[in-house]
Amino acid sequence: MDTIFLVLSLFLPRITLLIFYFSHGIPANNMPLIGDFLLTVFLPRVLILIYVVDNLGTSSPWFWIHLIAAILVYSGFGKYSHKRYKKKD
Question: pTM score, two decimals?
Fold first, then answer.
């Protein structure tokens, strides 16, 4: 896997996937095309985790970095989620 793919996908996963799809640089995987498309649209971080596991394995530090990023994003550790659920006085 390219290091640039791994770094960019931490911060901009959906855009990174689209750029690499159009430049034919997506990592080798065993996911059907419809699965790639649906996960890119709805759960891009999960798709990137699948790519990392397929190519580098779970012992790679990139797997753990992306897993922690996915947990933080999906559990609501973002600025948008704090504004959204903040009580109005």
Answer: 0.82
Number of domains in the chain: 1
Helices (H), 1-89: 3-11, 13-22, 33-42, 44-55, 61-74, 79-84
pLDDT by residue, tens only, the chain of 89 residues? 789 999 999 999 999 999 999 998 888 888 898 999 999 999 999 999 999 999 999 999 999 999 999 999 888 876 665 566 666 65
Q: Has residue 89 been placed in a domain? A: no
